[in-house]
Write a structure and sequence with these properties.
This protein is α+β, with helices and mostly antiparallel strands and 505 residues long. It has a domain of 228 residues: Alpha-Beta Plaits. The chain is 36% helix and 23% strand. The strands form three sheets. The chain has an eight-stranded antiparallel sheet with strand order 14-11-13-12-16-17-15-18, sandwiched between helices. Strands 5, 6, 7, 8, 9 and 10 form a six-stranded antiparallel sheet that branches. A four-stranded mixed sheet has the order 1-2-4-3, with helices on one face. A hairpin with an 8-residue loop joins β1 and β2. α10 packs antiparallel against α12. The protein starts with a helix and ends with a helix.
Length: 505
């Protein structure tokens, strides 16, 4: 009997311990799981966004539905491509219509759109070949980076500079003169050896730093206003294997840490980016700096699904931060503890770059998400972040993400945003998908542009056209000459878009 009572007592104790552990698990994990579950159910319940009319086009803002006359799909065969482009230019000239150039259409301010335009859709114009020495990739303007990376990966090579996602087209990236997360590098213009461009009069012109140099600088970062990028010659770099390191720092210490740990070791750190907290408890006070250290081992070939099985969970955690203070706090704690990559994990350069936007993209048909980007000198970083925080709080908007990168002076683009060493802050806002919601963001955008200008910085041009003409000219004092040259190269103003119509006419 004594043994039985003892066994029963041990059983009760075990049940109490199990109950206590379950209660603790519910307390620790119950709220996060409940929150994430609600978000998953909400996403499944959303209907499809309404389709555009057959004669309309839009861009990634989902705020620019625009009637077009027709869409011309430019093929990969060069002779056929030239015939299609020249035919569209002749038709537009005869009918008094504008011509716009479109690839993946990830600009957000009508940069690929104009009312009643003939649209040159470049995505089929996507051929590529590697020079025998492996140092130069010749690629057509409509090729997307997710097509290029596997091509280079199979040959042990990678892209010198590109964005952190691979959904964009080469022509679009060059027309916006994108920059990447390669530390201590100029924008992508610095990796371009030459361009072949179809100008408004139908000529096929090769331009570089040695020939047609003025046109070369105008096309890079020229937003499609000077011609069609038929082909680019891009510098390649070796694909490398990286080891990840994640540092949690204060915003005040971010620049010093970046310089000490990344910029002072250019041969040791291949990629680097930062993220600022948008969680209420640490709003714009904490940062995570992720470094990718070069390893000696050879990188593996790209996997068919480089995103891996964690993509759905990453997406859910990100989407759970929309409109939720708790969701933002949860995401930031997970970011600090686990980040996007495991500490010490080895990953290839191409695998990092070969990533699309599905992990974060908005699927709410009544909402959209808009990027803004600001460039400030490193010594002004903390002051600008303070001004940015004050403006965001004052306008009560839903800031989902702030990514931080660095860049050096641009020696090539005419309408350049980088005159020296800069820190770039990329902001992502969630807002309604309506004209009223768009207008409601204008005061915030203008406040942030003013804050950047006060600190000797600039704002990036591919996004919503909220800046006033005065702000635009203050940020880009070379703009009047840029537009004067546009009309010299294109006197009939065939190549037009909303950006040019807002600031250039």
């Amino acid at each position: 009997m004594g043994a039985g009572r003892a066994a029963g007592k041990r059983g009760r104790i075990a049940r109490w311990i199990l109950a206590a552990l379950l209660a603790a698990a519910v307390l620790v994990f119950g709220r996060p799981l409940l929150h994430l579950g609600r978000v998953a159910l909400r996403e499944r319940a959303w209907p499809e966004a309404p389709a555009l009319a057959a004669d309309q086009r839009d861009d990634a803002s989902h705020l620019e539905p625009t009637r077009v006359t027709r869409v011309v799909r430019v093929p990969a065969d060069e002779g056929a491509a030239l015939a299609a482009i020249r035919g569209a230019l002749d038709e537009a000239r005869a009918q008094g219509l504008p011509v716009t150039i479109a690839g993946a259409r990830h600009t957000m301010g009508g940069h690929t759109l104009s009312e009643a335009a003939i649209v040159l859709d470049m995505l089929d114009c996507n051929g590529m070949e590697l020079d025998p020495d492996g140092r130069t990739l010749r690629v057509q303007g409509g090729a997307r980076w997710h097509e290029i990376l596997p091509f280079l990966d199979a040959r042990g090579l990678s892209v010198g500079v590109m964005q952190s996602n691979d959904v964009f087209s080469v022509g679009g990236s060059l027309s916006a003169n994108c920059h990447g997360w390669q530390p201590g590098h100029a924008p992508i213009a610095g990796t371009v050896r030459a361009l072949r461009v179809v100008t408004a009069d139908g000529r096929l012109v090769r331009c570089s730093r040695e020939e047609e140099t003025e046109l070369f600088g105008l096309v890079l970062g020229g937003y499609g206003l000077f011609g069609v990028i038929l082909e680019a010659e891009l510098a390649t770099v070796p694909n490398r294997l990286y080891r990840t390191e994640r540092l949690v720092v204060s915003v005040a210490d971010y620049v010093a840490t970046l310089r000490e740990r990344a910029l002072a070791a250019p041969d040791e750190v291949g990629l680097a980016f930062g993220r600022l907290s948008v969680a209420p408890d640490t709003f714009l006070e904490e940062a995570v700096l992720t470094l990718f250290h070069v390893e000696e081992a050879a990188p593996p070939l790209l996997a068919p699904d480089p995103g891996g099985n964690g993509r759905a969970l990453k997406r859910l955690i990100f989407r759970a931060s929309v409109g939720s203070a708790y969701g933002k706090d949860l995401r930031w704690e997970l970011e600090k503890r686990f980040g996007g990559r495991a500490l010490g994990e080895s990953v290839s350069r191409n695998a990092l770059l070969h990533d699309d936007l599905t992990v974060i993209e908005n699927r709410d048909p009544g909402a959209t998400e808009i990027l803004q980007e600001y460039f400030v000198p490193p010594e002004a970083f903390a002051a600008f972040v303070a001004d940015m925080g004050a403006a965001v709080r004052a306008h009560e908007c839903d800031l989902l993400n702030v990514t931080v990168r660095d860049l050096t002076a641009d020696e090539d683009a005419f309408l350049r945003y980088a005159d020296g060493e800069l820190v770039a802050l990329v902001l992502l806002f969630h807002q309604g998908r309506s004209a009223d919601a768009d207008r409601a963001m204008e005061p915030l955008t203008r406040a942030l542009v003013d804050a950047a200008l006060r600190q000797g910085g600039r704002y990036y041009l591919p996004y919503r056209l909220h800046a006033t003409p005065e702000q635009f000219r203050a940020a880009y004092p070379m703009a009047p000459r840029f537009f004067e040259l546009k009309r010299r190269y294109d006197p009939g103003e065939l190549f037009r878009n909303r950006f040019y119509e807002t600031y250039g006419r």
